[in-house]
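Researcher: We're teaching a course module on how sequence relates to structure. For the next exercise, students receive a sequence and then see the predicted structure as C-alpha cells, so they can try to spot secondary structure elements on their own. Here is the exercise chain.
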Amino acid sequence: MNILVDIVHPADVLFFINPIRKLQQRGHKVCIASRDKDVTLALLDAFEVEHQSISKSGSGIIGLALELIKRDIALFGLAKSFHPDVMCGFGGIAISQVGKLIGVPSLSFYDTERAPLQHKLTLPFISHMYVPESYNGPIASNRTTRFPGTKDFSYLHPQNFTANETVARAAGFDPDSSNIFIRLVGWKANHDFGYRGWDEETLRKLVRHLSGYAKVHISSEIDLPGDLEVHAYRGPVQSVHHLLAHCDCFIGESATMASEAVLLGVPAIYAANDNRCYTDELAAKGLIWKVSEVGFDAVRVATEDIARLEKSEWQSRVDDYLHGKPNLADYVVDAVLQYAGADR
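Model: And here is the predicted structure for the students to work with:
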C-alpha cells in the first residue's frame, strides 16, 4: 500500500516515527510531507527518515492562511504523483481538504479541544478522526473513534522507548545533582491565538530559585534572555526524552511535554493558562500539578509539593495509570491499514 503521512510539528514526528517504521517493515511505501517548523526537519533527519518539506510555518492568521494555501497546492501535487491509498496526520487540515478533492481517505489523530479554526477547516472533510477517551471537543460526526491513554503512548510506551543514562549524560544530565527540565513554547500555532507565555521576570526568578539546588535545563521555542542562555538545552534533538526521563521534575507551558514526563515517570508541573483533556485527566490522577495563574510563587509551591511526595506513592500512581495501556503505535498502524484497504 501507498501511505502518505503529513507531518507539520515536531510532536508529529514522534507520534508517527514508530508507525512509519512498522509500516515500512511490512513492505508498505510511506511518503512523508514535512513542514519547516521548529526542529521538525532536524528530528526527521536525526531519525534518518526520508521526507519532502512542502511548506514553512507561517506567523499570525494571515501567514498561516497563506501557508495553508501553499501546503494544499503542494500536497495535491505530491499526492497526485505518489498515488496514496490513504493519508494520515495529527490534526490533518491539508490531508482532509486534499483527500476530499482527490477521493483518498484521510485520517486525523488529534487531542486539542480548543482549536476552533483547525476544527472548522478539518472536520467537514476528514474521513475519520481518532481522539483520546478523555477528549471533550468537537468531533467528526459518526466518523470518530476514541483510544485509551494519550498520543505519547505511540512513542513512549515501554515497548517503544527505554531511557538511556549515557545518552542523557551526553545531552546534559548531571548525575551528581538534581535535574529540572523547563519547556517554553512560542504560542504561534493556529490554536494558540489569544494565549501568551511566561513573562521574563517569572522565568528569571524561577530559574534563580531552582539553580540553588538543581541543574536547570531549558528547552525553548523562543529566544532566551542572554543571562539565561547558559541553561539552554544543547543536546541532540532526538536525545531530549532520555534527559527528561532522568530529571526530578518537569515544569513548562507544553501540555505535550508534561504528559510525556508522566509516561517517563517524572512529576510534571503544567504552568499555563490553558486546558487540555489529557492534562486534566492526569491532574485528576495526581500525576500533573496544574498552575493556571502562572507566577513564581505558584510554581514554587508546586515544586515543594512534589518534593514532599513519597517516591513509593508517586510510583504507585504512575503504575496505576500505565497499567493496561496499549502500544498506540500498533493501534495507528491497524487504523491506517484498515482505511488503506489492506489486510492487517
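Model: If you want an answer key for the exercise: The longest strand covers residues 29-36. The chain has a mean pLDDT of 92.
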